[in-house]
Amino acid sequence: MEVTCKDIIEAMPGRFQKEGAGSWRAAVQFRFSGTKGGDFLLSVADGTCSVRPGVGEKPTATVQSTDEVWIKMCLGKLDPQTAFMTGQIQVSGNMADIMQINNPRIFRRERPAGVP
């Protein structure tokens, strides 16, 4: 099975741990170019997490990359810090919201079903 950005992003609500999130509120926009990419908005508020396709009006942070870079990062084949420092991934807005996405107390470290 070929993994897409959609597979990875849509798995996030199932990995969400409201106890770890506390009072965190965010709307993180993901914009991935490429055939396995797309635009997605991750919303966290009041102990819930949801994802929808498309672009939000006022995201608190935005992540942009190619589909290839994002998939490699999420599968552990590319270090996120290296991707950021080399310009393979661009981040704008509230950096704390971006960092929370990588917090294992908020998002369990699991891969989507069918992801190797």
What topology does this entry show?
Elements: H1 5-10, H2 12-15, H3 18-21, E1 26-33, E2 38-45, E3 48-53, E4 61-66, H4 67-74, H5 80-85, E5 89-93, H6 95-101
Q: For the CA atoms, what is the radius of gyration?
A: 13 Å
Overall structural domain count: 1
- Which residues form runs of ≥5 with pLDDT under 50? none
Order of helices and strands: HHHEEEEHHEH
- Our estimate of the beta-strand percent is 25-35%
Structural class: alpha+beta
Number of DSSP-assigned strands: 5
Helix content: 25-40%
Assign the CATH architecture.
Answer: 2-Layer Sandwich
Mean of residue pLDDT values: 92
Q: What is the CATH topology?
A: Nonspecific Lipid-transfer Protein, Chain A
Question: What is the CATH top level name?
Answer: Alpha Beta
Determine the number of helices (DSSP H or I, runs of at least 4 residues).
Answer: 6
Q: What kind of sheet is the major sheet?
A: 5 strands, mixed
> Distance between the terminal alpha carbons, to the nearest Å?
8 Å
What general outline do the C-alpha atoms trace?
globular
Oligomerization state: single chain
- What is the strand arrangement across the widest sheet? 3-2-1-4-5
CATH superfamily descriptor = SCP2 sterol-binding domain
